[in-house]
Amino acid sequence: MIRSKQPLRRRVIAASTRFLVTLAVAVMAVATNGCDRFDSSNAPAKILLVSIDTTRADRLSAYGYRRPTTPFLQRLAKRGVRVDNAFAVMPTTDPSHTSILTGQYPRTHGIMRNAARRSDADAPSLGTFLQERGYRTAAITARIGLDPEPRLIAGFDESDAPHLPKKWRTADEVLHLATKWLAEREGRWFLWVHLWEPHLPYDPKQPFRDRFIKRPTRDYTLYTELERFLEPDTPLKESAILRARSLYDGEIAVSDRAVQRLVNAAYKAEPKGAPLVMIVSDHGESLAERRTTRQIGFGHGVLLYNETVRVPWVTVWDDHVKPSVLETPVSLVDLAPTVMDLVEPGRAYETEGRSIAEAFLGPGEPEPRTFYLERRLFSSKFRDDLQYPETAVVDYPWKFIENEGIGLRELYHLVRDPLEQVNLFEAEPESARRLTGMLKEWRAQHPLPPQKGPKTRLAEQEARERAELRSLGYID
């Protein structure tokens, strides 16, 4: 991250060696990828990617939720594609966003926890792909540390993330920066905008604070200071759970209003024409559903059930993307290759995801495919289950979750049991053996990466921000 008095810090690569490396990579990319044959006439001139932190699909009215939490996204989805079963690769912010931007699993790109670094600083990304095709690229994010440069995610000409003493930005602050950047555009552009709400604390401002609460109160302290890890038999009042969930819904409504303003600004921005817009989330949120079975209250990063990994993915590109609802489960590693395919159709891309652009252009569903999930690595030892990696495989309609260290093996049929309440591991031995073997083979092919990536020139600043993230509970 680069400090500046300007609200949006522009990267200036001063080191000649880095310039030469970047130039060499670009030249090689042109030679090997055929960028000299890139036809821009049919590609979107404007691409807006909005990631809403900590947003589970089943709390959005755009996905059928009973409360009107996302009226704008609901209208937007009717103009494009709503992916009903999109899964994050990991319910943790930095690893998941890196997978969204690279099409790689965390074990491949190397970011297995927040504030880590990508294993290969020169590895390509969606940003580098678009840079090579003439797009101006930028990232405006709402949380300290979620900045492409220190995470070693190449491909962004400009980036802006908070710096200490500021820990995060409100949606209004992010909107101010993003709309200003959009107003200054002339040529082709790609903008990634990250919104913080509805991350803990659930503390939306009025009129959203009381929008879904029947009996408002002046004291919300109890509902904004919520425990993630619970002691066995910890009592949680049902009224407190319901109120906290209502505040979470209010935060989602804040995000929906921000998304509306961002999308409107993207349409007005130069060059003229409809932008390609993708709205996703990096992960969902536990809302005390597993308080008795896994002793987890509110938060994310620990469990791999659908409430923390099933996320929204809405795509709109007027006159190109056909309005539809896709039911086939997909992974967020599919997002980057899908955008690449919409920009330059028919090419092969080196990612672990696959393009579902053909289904977006419709009609039809993408081919079913197996994909994998895992939770972040923990260094703390205060809970037995956190000492060991926990992974999962989705081979629809089956989902298998395993933590070998504590003997956890859970098999769910997601069509018959979308809330994952009935463990069929013993009752369905054939499916259990098959998915156990698939997950074991994937782990063998994807060993855990080293947990220290290449050093950066921002090491001292990163150390301060890591300490702050640790104090906030984002890393341990």
Your description of this structure?
- The protein is α/β, with parallel strands linked by helices and 476 residues long.
- It has two domains: 9-369 and 448-472, Alkaline Phosphatase, subunit A (3-Layer(aba) Sandwich), CATH 3.40.720.10; 390-446, Arylsulfatase, C-terminal domain, CATH 3.30.1120.
- Helices cover 30% and strands 15% of the residues.
- The chain has helices at residues 16-33, 71-78, 93-102, 106-109, 126-131, 171-183, 221-224, 238-268, 306-309, 335-343, 357-361, 429-445, 459-472; strands spanning 9-10, 46-52, 81-83, 86-87, 136-140, 158-160, 189-195, 276-280, 286-287, 298-299, 310-311, 313-316, 324-326, 330-331, 371-374, 391-395, 398-403, 408-413.
- A hairpin with a 4-residue loop joins β17 and β18.
- It is globular, with a radius of gyration of 21 Å.
Query: How far do the termini sit from each other?
Result: 22 Å
Proper CATH architecture of the largest domain: 3-Layer(aba) Sandwich
What share of residues is helical?
A: 25-40%
CATH-defined superfamily of the largest domain:
Alkaline Phosphatase, subunit A
Strand ordering within the main sheet? 1-6-5-7-2-8-12-3-13
Mean pLDDT: 88
Structural class label: alpha/beta
Provide the low-confidence segments as ranges.
1-35
Q: Could you say how many structural domains there are in total? A: 2
CATH class type of the largest domain: Alpha Beta
Return the CATH topology of the largest domain.
Answer: Alkaline Phosphatase, subunit A
Shape designation: globular
Number of strands: 18
Multimeric status of the protein: single chain
Rounded to an integer in angstroms, the radius of gyration calculated over CA atoms is 21 Å
